[in-house]
Each structure stands twice: as C-alpha cells, then as structure tokens.
Amino acid sequence: MRSRPALPAIFFGLVSLAVLALLAAPPRRPPRGPHQEPLLPRQEVLQVVGSGHLPVIVDYLWIQLIQATGRAWVAEQYRDVYPYAELITDLDPRFDIVYRFAGSTLPTNLGREKWVNTEESTRIIRKGLQHFPNDLMLNVMLAYNLSSFHKEYREAARVVERAAKLPGAPDYLSGLATRLYAQSGEVNAGLALAYSLADSAKDEQTRATFEKRIQELELEAELQRVDQAIEAFRQQFGVAPPDIPTLLWLGFLKQPPEDPQGGEFFIGYDERAYSETQKRRLEIFTPDDRGYQWE
Questions:
Q1: Is 142 part of a structural domain of the chain?
Q2: What domain range includes position 92?
Q3: Among 78, 123, 220, 284, which one is most buried in terms of CB atoms within 10 A?
Q4: 160 inside domain
Q5: Please, what's the b/e burial string for 34-52 (b: 16 or more CB within 10 A of its CB; e: otherwise)?
Q6: 89 or 16: which leads in pLDDT
Q7: How do beta strands 273-275 and 265-267 pair?
Q8: Domain-located, residue 260
C-alpha cells in the first residue's frame, strides 16, 4: 500500500514534473494524422533529477494515463496509453496494475474484427511478466493476445499450459491448452499433455474428460492428415476432391483415416475433413479468421 506523501511534497513533485517535461522531453514523433502523441519526459532524466520524488511522479503519470483513457475516442488516442504505461513501469517496474490495465485497454476494434494497438498491448504484457511471471491474469492476457490477434497458437498453448499450473487457475485452462496445441498443428504435444492430465486426475470425472480429449486429439490428427491430402489434390487439379475414396484411389492418402469412435470421414462444404462423430473441428479459431469458437 502506497503511503500518502505530504501536500508540499506533492506540489513540489508536480511542479518538478512540469519543468522536466519542458526541459527533458525527447522530440515528438512525426504525427501520423491529426492526433499528436503525448509529450513525456525522458526516463533517464526523471530518475536522476527527480529521484527524490519518483513515487509522486509515478502517481502523477498514472493519473494522466487514466485521464488519457477516459478522453480516448479513436484508436490513436487509445494508443497514448502505451507511452504512459512504458514510462511508469520503467520508473516503477513493480507497479503491477499498470501492466494489466494497459494490456487490456490498448487493443481497439476498428470494426469487422480489425484490431489495432495489439502489438503495444502484447509488449506491455510481456514486460509485466518479466517482473510477475506467476501473475495468472497476465498469463491469460498474453495467451489471448497471442491466439486472437497474432495467431501464434503454439506459444499461446505453452503459455496456457503454464498458467493452468498456477495457484487459483480455473480448470478449463488445461483443456484450452490442448485445443491450442491442436490449432497450432502440434497435436502430439496436445496428446502428451492430455495423457499427463488423465494420468494425474484425482477423480473419475476429470479422468474421463481428458480421456475423451485424447480421443478428440487422435481424431484431429487424422483430420489434419486428410486436410493435407485435400490440399495436395487441390494443388494438382485446381479443385477440391469430391470425397475421401478419391484421395485413396489416387494415392493422396496412403491409408484410410481412422476415427477412434468409429465414425465415417467426409469432406465438408468448406473443403475440409470431418467425421460423423465430431462435425466441428477441435479448434478455437476458424481457418479463415472470421471468428472463434469457445467450446
């Protein structure tokens, strides 16, 4: 809990910050439009000249960040959160709320699921995890950014797998990690995790859940194998194959796909492989990135 500084100290800190902002600020970047980025003092100067008043300066900058967020209407204005958050956490790396607040505030939807300011969001979250590696919320936020915005499913899966082992982690994270592994194409990694979770389950219901997930991952591996054959057929003939037997007959599939639950395979309207036992793929994000499915 921060101790409240005396009023004279607060006044002196604010005046000092104003002077430093004028004398020590770096040149502004050329504006990308009518909006001008905030003019902030250099971190190095603040640490030397304002060393005796850093807590006051940091609190002042935090208030400015909150106000910048309240004033924001467009993406460029929301991006102003980033330089404030960077400077605050440079001066006080243990100010943990800044990482979470900025990381969640920065991403801005321009419409039709076109997001901007995502790189800055991920950067400040990664910075926070350097100081708070076991912060559950920061780990989940990073996994969300990696999967939703950057399509880095493999790293997202690893982040979620680690987060699932943190104190207070919700049960669904382990299952989410296996789905992300499947999404990234690393079905074997997802299977290894699912086998481990099934073996270490403390009750029959949890064990049954992950045994079912093992079957789903084994099926997904077969579906991905058929998808590769479909793509090879498309590359050669310019169209998708009409059915699975055609792929077998022409040698694009070396052996028939097998569903652990005994279902028949078919090619869907989206020209991807499916089984009758699971008509929705073991994925969170659709391949064309039009949306995502949480299951």
A1: no
A2: 1-132
A3: 220
A4: no
A5: eeebbebbbeeebeebbee
A6: 89
A7: antiparallel
A8: yes
Does residue 200 have a pLDDT over 80?
no
pLDDT bucket at 43, cuts 50 / 70 / 90: confident
Query: Of 44, 83, 84, 77, nearest to 63 (Cα)?
Result: 84
Prediction pTM value: 0.70
Within 10 angstroms of residue 23's Cβ, the number of other Cβ atoms is 11
Least confident of 36-50, 203-217, 222-236: 36-50
> Does residue 138 lie within any of the structural domains?
no
> CA-to-CA distance for 180 and 285, rounded, in angstroms?
9
Query: Mean pLDDT lowest for which of 2-16, 33-47, 149-163, 230-244?
Result: 2-16
Is residue 22 located within the same domain as residue 87? yes
Positive or negative, the CA dihedral 205, 162, 295, 106 is: positive
The 10s digit of each residue's pLDDT in 49-85 is 666 778 888 998 999 999 989 988 889 899 999 999 9
Place of tokens 């797998």: 161
